Amino acid sequence: MAIAKMKFVRVYGPVARIDDFISSCCLTGEIHPENALDYMSASLGFSGLSGESAYGAKIQRIEELADIADASLEEDFELSDFNPEDFDEGMIDEMIDKMQEFHRLHTELTEEIESCEKEKEQYSHFVDLDTSIKELLDCKFVRVRFGSMPVECSDKLAAYQEKEHFVFVTCERTATDVWGVYVAPRNNVDKIDRIFASLYFERVKLKKEAGTPSEVLNMIGNEEKLLLKSQEKLETEIAEYWNSRAEVCNALYAYLKQCSEAFDLRRYAATDRLGKTFTFVGWIPAKSANDFTKRVAALDDISCEISEPSEDKHGEPPVKLRNKRLFRPFEMFVSMYGLPSYDGVDITPFVAITYSIIFGIMFADFGQGLLLMIGAFILSKTKGMALAKILVPCGFCSTVFGFLFGSVFGFEHLLDPIYQKVFGLPGKPIEVMESINGVLLMAISIGIGLVAVAMLMNIVIRLKSKEIGEALFSENGLAGLLLYGALFVLIYKFMSGTQLVPTIACVIVIAVTVPILFAKEILIGFVQHKRKDEFMPESAADFVMQNIFELIEYILSYFSNTVSFLRIGAFVLVHAGMMMVFFSLAGNPKSPADVSVGGWFAIVLGNVLVMALEGLLTGIQALRLEYYEMFSRFYDGGGRPFAGVGKPEGHRIAEKIKKAAKRRA
C-alpha cells in the first residue's frame, strides 16, 4: 500500500555487447528506460545508436500469413521445443505462396457464388414466363427486353399501346414495381426503347440460357450448391494447412516480437564519439536491484552503477503503485485521475474502501449485491476484466448493506426471521421508505465525515511534502478543517437544538480561522520562505476584494461538497422506490410463495432493469464523489507512470534470444 521505491541505474559496456545486455536484463518488465543522451554532456560528442531493425519485415510477413488464414497471433506465445536457429525462413515464403493461392481460389469461388445469387435474383422475377429465354432472345423479326418499371408508370402503357406496336407481358407485380418483358418489331425497337425509358423501365440483361426462367433457376441453384461445397472444402484445407504450422508460426512471431522490442531499446542508449562504448540509463524498483546487478555481472565487459534517485541529477522518478491484491484493481481509478508524485502518498486503499462502501450503500440489496459479487468474480477469473475485479468488493458491500436494509431482490421482509431469531430484533434494522429523513441525514453525515477525512489527508500529505504553510493555513488545511467543523456544529445546533460544543468556542474558532483564510497566501509565503514578490499583493484594494470572494467560495464549497453526498441517500430511496413499482405490478406479494406467474415476470424484469440501470449510475456517481468532492481537496495527480519494457515472463524468450546470438557469434 505504497509507492515502490526506485533506483537509478547506469550501464556501460562495448557497443558489440549491447544486444546481449538488452536481451539478458531489459525484457522482464522491471526497467523503465530513459534517453541516455538526456543524462550526458553534449560537449563530449555522445550520440544515439542508429540502425534499422531486420525483424519488422519478417513480422509483417507472418502477420500477412495470419490475415490470409483469418487467424490471430499471440505475442506471449511460447513453444517449449521451439529453436529459432533451426527454423527455415524459406518456410514462411512457401506458406505465404501457398496461402495466397488458397486466397485466390477462395476469392474466385466467392465471386462466382455472388454471381449465382445475383442471377437467381434476376431470373426469380420471370418464373411465370413459360418460354425458353434463348428462343426469345434469338427471334429474327422482333426484339425482346426484360426488366422492371414503377407501378405508377405501368398504368400509362395502355395509352402508348393504342399508337405503337409492342406487347408488354407482366411476370411479377410488387407494391412498388412491375416486372415483365416487352416485345417490339426490330425496325421500330429504338422508338419503343425510348418510350419505355421515359417510363423509367430498368432493363435486365439475361443470359441466353436454353430453358424457361424456372428451369434456369434450378440450374443456377445446382451450380451454386457445387460452388458452396467447393468453398467449404477449400476452407477446410486452409484451416488444416494453417493448423499444421500455427504453433511454429506463433512461436516465431512471439520470438521476433521480442527481438524487435529488444532492438528498439537500442534507441535509448548513447555511444561515445568513436562508437565503441554505450551508456544505458533507466529506473528499476529497489526490490529488483540485486537481481538486475547479478544479471549484469554475468555479462563480460559490462558494468553498472545503481544510485538513489536525485531530482537534481535524474529528474523525478516514475511511479509504480504497490498494493495488496484486494486494493490493486482500484489503481485504475487513481491512474485515471493521475498518479501521485514519487514522494507523494498512494491513496489507492482510501479509494478502494470509500468507493466500495459508497457503492454498497447506494446499491443496497442483499440478493442483487450477492449476484453482482458472484458474477463479477466469475468474469474477473475467466475474462480478467479490470472492472469486474472492482465490482467484487462493491458487490460484497452491497450485500452487507442490503442485509442491513432488509432487501432481497426487492422482498423487504424476507430476512425478518433471521433478525428475530438471531439478533432478537422485531424486524429489519432500517425501514428505508419509513425513515426518509434518517436516510438523508445518514448521507449528509457520511459526507461530513469524508470531507473531514479528505482535509486530514491533505494536512498529512502537505506535512510529508514539507509544505507547512499549506498544511496549516489553506482552505483544506488545519484552518479550513477547524472552520468546517465549527460551521457544522452551529448548523447542527440550529437544526436539532442539540449543542455538541459550546457556541462561544465555535464563534472563537470562526473568528480566528476566517482572517487566516483571508490572508492565507501571505501566511503561507512567510512560513514556506517564498520570495516576497510571489505572495505579497501589489494592490491592497485588489487583494481585499479578491480574497473576500475567495473566502465566500471556500464556505460555499464546504456546503456544496457536503450537500452533494445527498445523492447517496437519494439512490437508496430510488432503489427502494423502483422495486416498489415493480412489486406493485406483481400484486405486492409479501413472500416468494405469494407471487403469481405474471408477478414473477414483473419482479424478474424489475430486478434486471434496476441492476443494469442503477448499477451503472451508482458506479458513475460514486466515482464522481471520489473525484470532485474528495480528490479535489487533497490530491494532486502529477506523477508519471512506470513503463517497464517487456513482460515478467519475458526472460524465457530472452534466453532464446541470447542463445541464438551466441550461436551466431
Largest sheet: 6 strands, antiparallel
**Averaged pLDDT:** 84
What is the overall shape?
A: extended
Counting DSSP E segments of at least 2 residues, the number of strands comes to 12
Instruction: Measure the end-to-end span.
Output: 46 Å
Backbone CA Rg: 39 Å
| Regions with little confidence, pLDDT below 50 for 5+ residues | none
Number of separate helices: 25
Could you say which structural class the secondary elements and strand pairing correspond to? alpha+beta
- How much strand? 5-15%
Helix % is: 55-70%
Oligomeric grouping of the chains: single chain
Keywords:
665 residues; alpha+beta; Alpha-Beta Plaits; 6-stranded antiparallel β-sheet; 4-stranded antiparallel β-sheet; 25 helices; 12 strands; 9% strand
What is this structure, in a nutshell?
By secondary structure, this protein is α+β, with helices and mostly antiparallel strands. Helices cover 59% and strands 9% of the residues. The model has no long low-confidence stretch (mean pLDDT 84).
